Amino acid sequence: MKKMLPVGIESFEEIRKKEFYYVDKTGFISELLYCGSKVILFTRPRRFGKTLNMSMLKCFFEVSCNKTLFDGLEIARDQELCERYMGKYPVIFISFKDVTGADYSFAYQQLLRMIGKEALRFRLLLESPNLDSYDKELYKALIKIKDGSFVMSPDVLTNSLLTLSYLLEKHYGRKVIVLIDEYDVPLDRAFHQGYYDEMVMTIRNLFSSVLKTNDSLELAVLTGCLRISKESIFTGLNNLKVYSIIDIKHSEYFGFTDSEVDEILSYYGLTDYKDVICDWYDGYLFGKVSVYCPWDVINYCNDLRSDPELEPENYWANTSSNDLIRHLLEHSDLSIRDDMEQLVNGGTIVKNIEQDLTYRDIYEPVGNVWSVLFSTGYLTQRERLSAVKFRLAIPNKEIQNLFIHMIEKWFDFMIQSDTARLRRFCESFINGDVDRMNEILNDYLLETISVRDTAVAKGMQENFYHGLVVGLLRSQGGWIVKSNPELGNGYGDIVLLIPGRVGIVIELKYVNHGDLRKGCLAALEQIEEKQYTKGLTGRVRKVMKYGIAFHLKECLVMKGEDEINSM
Length: 567
Hints:
Largest sheet: 6 strands, mixed
Oligomer: single chain
Distance between the termini: 65 Å
C-alpha cells in the first residue's frame, strides 16, 4: 500500500510517525549550521514548506528529540553532526500565522496565547532545582491565566521570549534555539485593519529583546513572506542574515525540485502527468533553482489518485484573498495595464525590485506592488539584469488563470460605472446596430487587458472575451443572460432574452491570424448548423443572431438574418 500524501500537514513529527510520503529536506539542517549566522530570516511565498521546515528543525534540535524520526533521511548520514547537535538544545517554537485579530486588542490576546502556550510546554521549570524562587516567579508571569485567557503586561510580553530563553538555559545548561514562523503575518493583518503602528511597536520590542540582547541565544531562525525593512521591526539587529528568493544559498529547500517531483510521480504511478504538472505548478526560480509549488503538487497528485481524469486546479491561488492584484488593477494607469497585458499573455516585464519594504511602502508608490508580487509568488524572475533589476514573468498556468480571473472581475466592476455607454451598447443588440456595437466593443478592448498569446491554455482566449461580453450584457437588470446554455444540437456561447420581445443568440470566435470576417462567418454558420435558435421558438417574437470574432485588441460583429416566430 502506497504512503498517504501529507495534504495540509505541517508537522514533521506527524508526517514521520504516521509514515506519510516525505520529500527529504533534512540537508537544510547541516547547511543552516555551517552558514555561521546567529539570526537568520528566510522569506518565501506561502505554501512553500516554511512551517514544515521549521517543525523539522524543532524536532532535530530539541532535547526531547525522537531520533528515530530521522532514520533513513539525508541528515542521518552525517553521524558526526548528529552526535554534536541532535537533541542538544531547548527550543522555543512560535508561529505567528494565527495572530490575525480584527483590532489590536484581539491581536494582542492572540499573541499572548501563542507565547503563553509555548511557555506552558516547559512546566518542568516550576520544579527545576536549577531555578530559584525569583526565577520561578518570572516563569509564572508567562503562564498566568485569568478567566481562561493569558494575562501579561506589555513589559512582560516584550521580554517574554528573552525571559523564557534565560530560564531554559539556566535549567538545561545549554543555550536556546528560537524559531519564529510567519513573523510578518501580524503586521500584514494590522496594516489592513488599521492598527499597524501599535503592532509594529509590539513586534519590534519583542524581537529586539529576544534577538538582539539575548545572551542565552544559540541560534534564531525566522520565516515569512516579505522582508520587512530593518527600520520597521529589526532596528539595531546587526546580526540578522536574510535569505530571500533571489539568493542562491538554501534555494532548493523550499519548494519541490524537478527531481523530487519525478520521484513523487514515479512512486504513485503518475508519470504521465509530468507535463501538465510542470505547466501548471512549476516555473518559480529561487536563486538558480527551478522549483514547483509543493502545495499544488501534493494536492493534485492526491486528487489524481482518486480521479485520474481530473483537470488541474488553482490550489495555491485559492488560499489567499489576492488583494495585491486587486489593488494593482484598481490603481492602474495605461502603463500598468500594458504591463499586466504583457504578463498574462506569457511575456515578461523589467522592474526594479525593492527588497526592504515597510507595509506603508507596499502600495505607495503603486510600482512597489511589483516587488511584493515577486516576493509573494505571483511573479517570478526569468533573468537578473543587475543587483536590483529583474525580468519578471507569471510562473505558470495556475497563476496566469488567477490574473485573468482578477482582470475579469476588475473589468466587470469598471464597466458598471460607465452606464450611459453600456446602455447604448446593449440597446444596439436589439436594434441590430452593428456599427455602434463594433465601435463601443472595440473601445472597451482598447481600455482593458486582453488575453491573446498562444502560450495561453487552449480555449482561454475565447473564455476571456466570452466573460467580457457576458459582463457587459448582464448590466441590464431586466434581461436574462445565459452563458453556455444547451441549445438545439449543442451548447451555444451566449443567449440573451428580453422576455416576450427578442431572443438573441451570440457565438464568439477567437481568430489567431486576424481574419475577423472569416471568424464571424464561422460563428454564424455554427449557429445555423447546430440549430441554436430552435429552443427559442415560441418564447419571443423575434430571434436575432450575431457572430463576434476577436483578435488581440480588435473585434468584428456581424449580424445574421433575423427569424420571425409566431407566438
